[in-house]
Automatic annotation (TrEMBL):
Protein name: Chaperone protein HtpG
Gene name in the database record: htpG
Keywords associated with the record: ATP-binding, Chaperone, Cytoplasm, Nucleotide-binding, Stress response
GO molecular function: ATP binding; ATP hydrolysis activity; ATP-dependent protein folding chaperone; unfolded protein binding
InterPro entries: HATPase_C_sf, HATPase_dom, HSP90_C, Hsp90_fam, Hsp90_N, Ribosomal_Su5_D2-typ_SF
Coiled-coil regions, chain positions: none
Signal peptide: none
Gene3D superfamilies, per the entry: 3.30.230.80, 3.40.50.11260, Heat shock protein 90, C-terminal domain, Histidine kinase-like ATPase, C-terminal domain
TM helices/strands, residue ranges: none
Amino acid sequence: MQEKGNISIHTENIFPVIKKFLYSDNEIFLRELVSNAVDASQKVKRLSALGQFQGEVGDLVVDVKFDPEAKTITISDKGIGMTAEEVKKYINQIAFSGATEFMEKFKEANDANEIIGRFGLGFYSAFMVADTVEIQTLSFQEGASPAKWVCDGSTSYEISEGSRTERGTDVILHVNEESLEFLNKARLGEILDKYGKFLPVPIRFGTVTENVEDGQDEEGKPAYKSVEVDHFINNTNPAWTKSPTELSDADYIAFYKELYPYAQDEPLFWIHLNVDYPFNLTGILYFPKIKNELEVQRNKIKLYSRQVFITDEVKDIVPEFLMLLHGVIDSPDIPLNVSRSFLQADSNVKKINNYITKKVADKLSEIFKTDRKGFEEKWNDIGLFIKYGILSDEKFAEKANDFVLLTNTTKESATFTEYYDKVKDLQVDKDGNVIYLYTQDVDQQDSFINSAKAKGYDVLTLDGPLDTHFTSYIEQKGGEKVQLKRVDADVIDKLIQKDQVVELALSEEESKQASTIFEKAIARTDMKVEIDALAEDELPVSVTIDEFMRRMKDMAKTNGGMNFYGSLPDNYKVSVNGNHPLVKRILAATEEEAAQLAKQAFDLALLSRGLLTGADLTAFVKRSVSLI
């Protein structure tokens, strides 16, 4: 048997889904209804500009009011209004969007896209908090009659003659028992501030008390009185909607404080986004002071659509490393689901992502080229951000390689190319490898740093949370045959091995004897003793850890992976300088004195690395006193 037909959808089944489960948060009802009121207001302005409305546009304020006793919330506008027929068309037909029809009708008008609503479902979010919803409306059309629409949340409704005498619409919510929290000034104000702070039409929410000047007092000083004034919750012309030429640095900083009133520091600099092809995007991204802490706060960049707040989850639009920035992005071309709460996959999202990455890289490059000194002064704040971008975004890295800085222990900065040219002649080993020495702790590795400097070598400071991974990147991109070695990974002559060989002053028998003395004095399985031929003025004993093993263990700590290396115990090499006078003194001493001197030299090496603590440190101090 073969049969074709149409699937039947019953409104009584789908309606509860729309009003209860379409939106992830019931506070969204206020955003949707206020946005609809703004749409209606925008339409009147558009029709007036096109000459299709001859009356006075007037004051297009949207009012939000509530009455705890009557248990009502009312959203009123002075917009386009509706006739009874339009109410039937736009309200009764779920998902028939009046905004979509309006944009299609006037699609050649440049700013028709200012209209927010597209799906025609936003109105029904009212039933998430209301048992009954009432509409009182009067169309802008000449001779129109007011209309009233009432629905109790079922599929039944009633249309009758309305009571409104001025153009516009009132949406009245009779709040249900589960949603009485919204009959509260603070709660409604919080929602309006979150979603409507930058709507393009003034939103009035009650009044506030202000002190205004009222003549002078008896001493001739200004006198003040308290008055109630209208409370407007939004800035209708936020900075990102303006041209950069209209804004001063003070304007950008003031807007930053408007976005983040509790921010303690001013932003370092900012990027004003403004593009209308191949997608429409505006916004301002601020570079905050990050310092040396990797704190990705995902709620600092806010996404808007035509000045309506959508979400602060922008990970698909903004690359991961740009989550460190603050600011605003506004685009009508970012696809949203029907509840305007979540982003949908779309080619525009990828294009916008790439565009923002390019703009950030271009801005940093511009600052580096035009103000190198200022760029270096900001490096402590922006270095982490740039390294994060390099490690996570290949396209950003291509540009950033020209302005990422390497800083040495004397606070001098250089680009990859500059640093390579600086050390390539002196810090080259016998195999032609250019060795970059670095420290992750200037204080703990001080003795190793001084040994390197005594040879004329330069030491980089790589002590940030990402530098464990960044060292590998430098080896790949820093220059030809570059290798990075932490300055305490071995004695300096082995870190950069030259052709010339230092002869060991000890005989083979003396070397074995010295090794045995130190092994017994140390008595630790994680310490391997080696007798090395070093210059007499080098340290008598150094405790080092293999570069490869240490780097693998550091990576295991930072990314939670590489468990094999992370689970291995620390193993150190104890390098005994066979040419140091102390070793000859130890060989000539009695067994007891030799053991004591060897232990003291070893503990001193541990102390220089910050590895001597607790009871071992106390014992070291006591031995030091007894040896004096």
